[in-house]
Amino acid sequence: AMLVEGQRAFNDGDFRQALDRWDRAADAYRERGEAAAQAQALVGKGMAYLPLGRFPRAGAAMAEARELAAGAGDRALAMRAAIGQGSAQALSGNPDGAKALLEEALSATSAAGYRDLAAAAGLELGNILAEVGRSDQAVMHFRRSLADADGVGDRALAAKAAVNLARALLSSDLGAEGWSVLTDADQRVRGLAASHDRGFLLVSVGGLYRTAADRALKQADDALQRASRAFEAAAETARDVADRRTESYALGHLGE
Predict the structure, then answer these.
(1) Cα–Cα distance between 85 and 42 in angstroms, integer?
(2) Which of 120, 217, 231 is nearest to 176 (CA)?
(3) Rounded CA gap, 220 and 57, in Å?
(4) What pLDDT sits at residue 182?
(5) pTM for the whole structure
(6) How many CB atoms lie within 10 A of CB 32?
(7) Are 222 and 187 in contact (CB under 8 A)?
(8) Quick one: which of 114, 215, 217, 222 is 20 to 30 A from 180 by CA?
(9) How far apart are CA 34 and CA 83, in angstroms?
(10) Is 194 exposed, middle or buried (0-12, 13-18, 19+ CB in 10 A)?
């Protein structure tokens, strides 16, 4: 039950409550000697630490989860933990270590046929490459992540990949394609159920429409209108799930 409660709180953007639930679950499973379940709870803890800015703790939780899952023979969970560990390293200022971890995870998940995990690894790897200015490689990984997420029907992950692909294209010399991908990403995000991710992604979509307008694309006026609608939808979604932080972000952008 605590695993489910943690996931529910996480989806609603209540990361502290999610952390509390997953922390309790990890302790309970540790006492029972249920390594795989403990690893699952630790992955949750790592996920909750990331948006709270506690990156070293996120990395430590993911590393412990990875070791436990591997020992329990749960290869998929070990790979998921490795992806989370890579994300934590990237956010801790270790892009080289993160890149090595994620490249290994992407290779392993692809070889094992875990397209959902390959999509997640590709998305994180693309983010790192985009941060260091390797936009061509970032675009390649975002495209692959989007295809893998679509292939397994993971709409939330596909929406994230589409948003990040649009961002990478708009920041490169492929602005025209970026507009097409952005409008597609907008529809993907709006098709998600109310959650923290939906609200946060709509804020990102609104910001990208403003980027498109600033680049003086022929759709500039339309882009500004779409940006406002995205921020309004983000604020509404955030209110629906009591996510005050995202609502504040959205309203702040509307006031600019």
Answers:
(1) 11
(2) 217
(3) 43
(4) 95
(5) 0.90
(6) 10
(7) no
(8) 114
(9) 22
(10) middle
